[in-house]
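Exercise 7 asks you to align residues with tokens for two separate proteins.
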Amino acid sequence: IAILKVSSNLTEEEIRDIYDDFKRQCPSGRMHKNQFLKCSKAFMESEDEKTDVPHVMFSVFDKNRDGTIDFSEFVLIIAMGNKEDLDSRLELVFEILDMSNDGRISYDEMMDFLEITKKYQATGSVTNFVPETVAKDMFAMFDLNNEQKISKQQFVEGCKKSKDLSDFFDSW
């Protein structure tokens, strides 16, 4: 709970309430995508009905690609909407991108995230992008090749220096 409190900016009581509801809906402790999509409507309201953000979020957090997420991953998805300052939101996006959990983002991790995002992007979205271009631009900003990795500090600073990157990653 302590880790989730820090990561999500939720109170212990809110986390326990979410957990109770999660366990009621998912007694196995794993939430399937269709369950997530149904309950995501409550915390991912959007003015654009065509938004595919819930699909992308589920796919990004389903790191082992088994079609389910656990409670901690579910809370972190909810936390995405609770981060108020840009640095905190970018740090959370970094955590999502760091699929290997080594504190650094590889080119492949960046591409995986961007390709998932592109796959579920709403038709006609104004945020049309080329995943390879975004990844190359981010790595080039720090004179890194695709065999090297970006640190959290580099990611946050790089996104803040580039309005396009900042807008792209802050939309999460």
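Second protein for Exercise 7:
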Amino acid sequence: MDNSHCETLLRLSAFAILELVDGITAVVAERTEDNEAYINATPDVLPHQLVRILPRNFCVYLQRHRERLDYTFSNEEIENIGPQHKVLCDLYRRQPDVKSSIDSFNDSAAYRDAWIGLHNMYPLLEKFVGGLATIFPGTSTVESDFSVVKYEKNKNRMTLTNASLEGILRAKQYRRMHNLKV
């Protein structure tokens, strides 16, 4: 590698490090009063949630995620997500059987169950919201999880093996999952 390429590489690396350091001050681990990870705004991903979003507002929602969509969707597919949402909303308003089927689910419904019967009709819409459901919108939840690990593997418990630590974390997760209302 010649000197000009080395210099460019070093300049870009330094810029990336500065951006990282500058952004780290904005990272805040959010916790509930039970010291659990706090997820303040889960995205609307279930059909009964989507039909409550006006199509013009959904377009704004779509634009907010445009940069992320470019990695997994073609431009044509991205342009068809909004119209699929509009068709879903129209069908919901015009067909009582579709409305009652969609309304039979609540916010605690399983993603797969809520989309049964609809996923073949709106594949791009389902793929888009499925991506939102599986990706954290920010780093605060990850930072929060690191705080939990640091809390569990404190200076007095540094000899914990990874398997022991995993057992502790799974037990905490089990208690949390057991308390969910299904």
